[in-house]
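hey so u asked for the seq, here:
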Amino acid sequence: MMARLIDCILGVLTAFSLSACTGVPDRSAALTAQGEREIVIMDFARPPALQPLPAGWRHRMFWTRAPMEMSLGSKDGVAAIRLETKASASMLMRTVDIDLQHYPLLAWRWYVERPIEADASELTRDGDDHPARLFIALSTEAGEARNMEIIWGNKVLKAGDTKYLGTFPHYVANGGRANVGRWHAEQVDLLALYRKFWPDAAPARLTDIGLFCDSDETRTSSIAWFADLRMRQRP
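ran it, structure tokens below
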């Protein structure tokens, strides 16, 4: 599924023929660094309005897919956003403009309440659903778009694994039935992942980041919570 959705996001015509995407980023409202050591990307203790979303935020939806359901609340005392899918898929995106060299670390918290339960392997297109993903959009100095995802693994993929669908890279930060039902604080070195996936390591900026949940390929359902999404400088 992801190759189709990403091709759509990038405006590329593909053989998969996903009908269309909705939502155009307002780059004039991009979140930028102001010299702080940590940039707060999404803070649901001070949540944005969901209807309508503020400038620089958007709900990325797909014409041939029902969207995920979004609501604000608290899970086990943590202010968070709840994202539920029912054979559906969409993304809550924030437009940013952040130098990956200066802010290489991505930190967040997530809680998977209902994982994807499907027979199809997550390594295949038919099984490419995950209860929680982070969509990462980057642009090099030459203007080349480079995109990756950080995902919650289902049954096969474990923390530290990578997978490709076509040429699209995914990094598994957590996952598995044993880790469902509680909060996990994560931090990944996004710059190191970028260098791993693109060995030329051309200087790049983070341009968009999204919370993405989907269960449309497997026709299942999922519930995930996210909190405290931040970009950090190295200590």
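The chain has a mean pLDDT of 91. The chain has two helices and 15 strands.
lmk if thats what u needed
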